[in-house]
Each structure stands twice: as structure tokens, then as C-alpha cells.
Design a protein that fits this description.
With 517 residues, the chain is mostly helical. The chain has 20 helices and 4 strands. The strands form 2 sheets. Strands 1-2 form a two-stranded antiparallel ribbon. InterPro entries: NCS1, Pur-cyt_permease, Pur-cyt_permease_Fcy2/21/22, Uracil/uridine/allantoin_perm.
């Protein structure tokens, strides 16, 4: 990261930042005071010389993140709702094309300025106010980290139990689970933190080889099940229970929002990765080639493999761990184990450790480094008891993911409105780290961003509702008049926050008020 040796401040009147021929910006030596309480080596802009992630690096990052167990079950879950395979794959493809747009818009600030998500949020929310969106994002990431780690630990346990002929599942129980399952969970937890402790370059190298390895593993699984089935099975010919008429659209739009919400977290903190990009072309092409294509191909692959499992075993097996456990030789089991292990590590570290590590560092930059933030994330991911969240899907889906997921759209709306409409992509880097500067607003908070966040959040989650006996919300919604908006929470939150923020900031922009570049 940035040089830790204090540099002499620039001469009076000298520019605090320089712009390269390709439009990328970096701080002038000494422009960012090293005694700033809002800066540390992990939050300062990445120097131009260290921004070298290529198109392949970003594409590999997305391939590695998209190939995970929850992604595998997305298409099969839509089929369970009554869609046929074509409708399921279409829904996932469209959702990932849509979510790619905010990814590219927020990701633009990364290679241009070399800053992570919480620092970008300072421009709109204020130096202190940026902790609000950062903590919302960190909360989701910590929860996902714990859940993915538990799922990965379960995968290791199931496959090793098959290797040892069921000996592990008969072991004594602790807390309702066999003790070897806890051992697998803790080992998997430690492995991930060990990788991220070595820094972002280690993550980049890991994703580079993990991406093709997981692709090969998924194709091998397809070849194996197709060989056993003597074909791809009857699922490809299975008609839709919904058709393309009035029964389809009430299922399609909530499902589309759910698929968008799957990666809405990364649409906020993608600058955490693009800040290492060697240019806009690398991040735009890398993300465009990596996200929608990979998710669509993986969805199709999961449908084909599930189809084969139905032909072989008489019932569809949606979970890849359960299917891999049916391999009839030790080599096949170990190969499946390594593939699932690599797939889960690649998504969990990139999607659920990097962001909260930066977000927590933003709380107290002088006390919390990136590595410390990653360790805190790992600890919180255990303390939320992810095994309990898995046991109660109503609490997990409708309370935590549903409410917080709706709020993520409002943060994206504020960030995009501020960076693209209000500032026209122009930021003063040094001021993002300086108290009482142009992004200080009122005591470090921009009330306009908070109002836009609150308005978007109210409309996004105010109508949250549950079926009788299936969740904590009233059947008619918390605020009944908003109940029809609940299934479109991410889009409603993003659109509302965008409009409200622009309306509140536009007069200040025209008067060149402090805080508006």
C-alpha cells in the first residue's frame, strides 16, 4: 500500500493531486496528512504504480465468486417455484445484467482515485457519516461470512464422512451437532483468515487459479452425472407450471429482485477491488465478461446437473454437496471436496471479508487496520451463530437479509447520485481524509444523504410482510400502504434515494457550497 514514511507537504498553492494521461488520479507527495485520524495505510489511495489488476484479474475474481453453493441453487430454486429451465436461466441472466450497471458506476471511482468504498462514501455522507453505510454493508458481510463458512464446513464434513464410511456422523454431539462438524467449521474458518491475512495480492493470485479450477470441477460434475444418466434427463423437457402469462409475472418480478439482491452487496463495495485496477477498461471489461456470463452459465450448468440427478436417483438433488457425496470412489469424493472447498473460499473471502475489513477500519483508522478488520469479521461471523440462522430461514431471509438488503439499494442510490450527477466524477482526494474540510459538512455528517437514506429505506422495507406463521412481520406489512413495494425493495430503495439526494443537493451544487466538488 502507500508509503508509510511521512512526506513533506506540497508547497503552498501546489496541487494536492495529479492526473495521469489516462484520467487516473493520485495524491501529490505529502498532500494527505499522516497524522489524520481518518487515514491509515489501507484507506489511503493506492498509488498509480500499484494499480495493476488486469481484465483477467477482474474476470477471474467474478468467476471465482459466482461459482459457489448458493449460486448453484439459484436456478434450481426458481424451477421449484414453477419455472422451466429457460425461464430460470433468463431471470438470472437479466438480473445480473441489471446489477452490472450499478457495479460499473460505483466501481468507476476505484481505478480513477484508488479509494475503497467507505472512503468514497465520505464524499456523500461526510467523513463521520460514511460509517453509517459502511456498517450496514459490514453487517451483511459478517452474516454472509458466517453462513458461507458454516456451509463450507458442512460440505467438508459430509464428504469426509463418506470417505470414512459414516464414522464421523456417529460421533458424539456438541451443541446439537457432531464434534467433527465443529472441527471442519473451525478449520475452514482459520484457512480463510490465513489467506486474507496475507493481503489483497494473495487474494488476487488465489482467485486467478481458483476460477479455472472451479470451472473444471463443475464441468467434471456435469460429465459424471450425464454418464450415469445416459443423457441430461427429463428436466429439459419439463414444461413450465407458470407459462408466460398472468401466472408468470407475479413470480418473475420478486424473483428478479431476489437475483439482483444476490450481488447488491458487491454493487456497493466493488471499489474495494477496482481501486487496484490499471484502468477503467480493465474493470469494465473484466466485470462485464465475468459477472453476467458466469452467473448465466453456472445457472444453466446447475439445471443440467440437477436434471441428470433426477434421471439417476429418481428425484432431483439440488445441493451439490449432497450430489457429490454420492460419488462411488474415494478419488471422486476428494476431488469434489477440493472443488467445493476452493469455490466457497473464493467467494467468501472476496465478497464477505474484504468489505467489512475496510468498513471496520474506517471506524477507527488509527486503531483498526485491514488485517484487524478481517479478524474482527471472522469473529463476528462466528458470534452471530450462523448455524442458528440456517435453522430459521424466516428470520434469516425476511428479517435480516430482507431488511438490510433493501437498505443496500438506498446506499447505492446515494453513492451513484453523488458521484455521477452532483460531482460529475470529480473528487478532491486530500479532502476525503481531512477533518473540517469540504466533505466535513456539519460535524462530519451530510444530513441530505441521511434523509435520502431514510426515505429510500422507509419505502424499501416499510412494507415488509410475512405469511401467517412464517415470519415476524404482519401479514399486511409493517406499513400496509407500502406492502406492494416490499417485493421490489432494492429497486425502490435505490430509485428513491437517488431522486431525493439529487433534489436536496442540487441547490448546494449550484452555489458551490462546501462539500460539493
Amino acid at each position: 500500500m502507500a508509503d508509510t514514511v511521512p512526506a513533506e507537504p506540497p508547497p503552498a498553492g501546489a496541487p494536492s493531486q495529479t492526473t495521469a494521461a489516462d484520467g487516473r488520479v493520485e495524491l501529490s507527495p505529502g498532500a494527505c496528512p499522516h497524522d489524520s485520524r481518518y487515514a491509515n495505510d489501507d484507506l489511503r489511495p493506492v498509488p498509480l504504480a500499484e494499480r495493476h489488476w488486469s481484465t483477467y484479474n477482474f474476470a477471474a475474481l467474478w468467476v471465482g465468486m459466482a461459482h459457489n453453493i448458493p449460486s448453484w441453487t439459484l436456478a434450481s430454486g426458481l424451477v421449484a417455484f414453477g419455472m422451466d429451465w429457460k425461464q430460470a436461466v433468463f431471470t438470472i441472466a437479466l438480473a445480473n445484467v441489471i446489477v452490472l450497471l450499478p457495479m460499473l458506476l460505483t466501481g468507476h471511482a476505484g481505478p480513477k482515485y484508488g479509494i475503497p468504498f467507505p472512503v468514497l462514501a465520505r464524499a456523500s455522507f461526510g467523513l463521520r457519516g460514511a460509517n453509517l453505510p459502511a456498517l450496514v454493508r459490514a453487517a451483511v458481510a459478517c452474516g454472509w461470512f458466517g453462513i458461507q463458512t458454516w456451509i463450507g464446513g458442512q460440505g467438508i464434513f459430509v464428504l469426509l464422512d463418506r470417505v470414512f464410511d459414516g464414522g464421523w456422523s456417529d460421533a458424539s454431539h456438541i451443541g446439537g451437532h457432531p464434534w467433527p462438524l465443529w472441527l471442519c467449521f473451525l478449520a475452514f474458518w482459520a484457512l480463510q483468515l490465513a489467506i486474507i491475512h496475507r493481503g489483497m495480492e494473495t487474494l488476487r493470485r488465489f482467485e486467478n487459479w481458483a476460477a479455472p479450477f472451479v470451472l473444471v470441477g463443475a464441468v467434471v460434475l456435469l460429465v459424471w452425472i450425464s454418464d450415469k444418466a445416459g443423457g441430461l434427463g427429463p428436466l429439459l423437457e419439463r414444461p413450465s407450471k407458470l407459462g408466460w402469462g398472468a401466472d408468470f409475472w407475479p413470480v418473475f418480478f420478486p424473483a428478479l429482485m431476489g437475483m439482483i439482491g444476490f450481488w447488491s452487496t458487491l454493487s456497493l463495495n466493488i471499489p474495494d477491488f477496482t481501486r487496484f485496477g490499471k484502468g477503467q477498461r480493465a474493470q469494465v471489461w473484466g466485470q462485464s465478461l465475468g459477472l453476467p456470463t458466469t452467473m448465466t452459465a453456472f445457472a444453466l450448468l446447475s439445471v443440467l446437473v440437477t436434471s441428470g440427478s433426477e434421471a439417476v436417483y429418481g428425484a432431483p438433488i439440488w445441493e451439490p454437496v449432497d450430489l457429490a457425496a454420492k460419488a462411488d470412489n474415494v478419488f471422486g469424493l476428494l476431488f469434489a471436496l477440493v472443488t467445493i472447498l476452493v469455490a466457497t473460499v473464493s467467494v467468501n473471502i472476496a465478497a464477505n471479508v474484504v468489505s467489512p475489513a475496510y468498513d471496520l477500519a474506517n471506524l477507527a483508522p488509527k486503531l483498526i487496520s485491514f488485517r484487524t478488520g478481517a479478524l474482527v469479521t471472522g469473529v463476528v461471523g462466528v458470534l452471530i451463530f450462523p448455524w442458528k440462522l440456517i435453522e430459521t430461514p424466516e428470520l434469516y431471509i425476511f428479517v435480516w437479509l430482507g431488511v438490510v438488503g433493501g437498505l443496500l439499494g438506498t446506499v447505492a442510490g446515494v453513492l451513484i447520485a453523488d458521484y455521477w450527477v452532483i460531482r460529475r466524477t470529480r473528487l478532491d482526494l486530500a479532502e476525503l481524509y481531512r477533518a473540517e474540510g469540504r466533505y466535513w459538512y456539519a460535524r462530519g455528517w451530510n444530513w441530505r444523504a441521511v434523509v435520502a437514506f431514510a426515505a429510500g429505506g422507509l419505502l424499501a422495507v416499510g412494507g415488509s410482510h410475512s405469511d401467517p406463521g412464517k415470519g415476524p412481520f404482519p401479514e399486511g406489512g409493517l406499513i400496509p400502504v407500502l406492502e406492494p413495494l416490499a417485493d421490489y425493495g432494492w429497486a425502490v430503495g435505490l430509485g428513491t434515494a437517488f431522486v431525493v439526494y439529487v433534489a436536496l443537493m442540487w441547490p448546494s451544487r449550484e452555489r458551490k457550497a462546501p462539500g460539493v466538488a
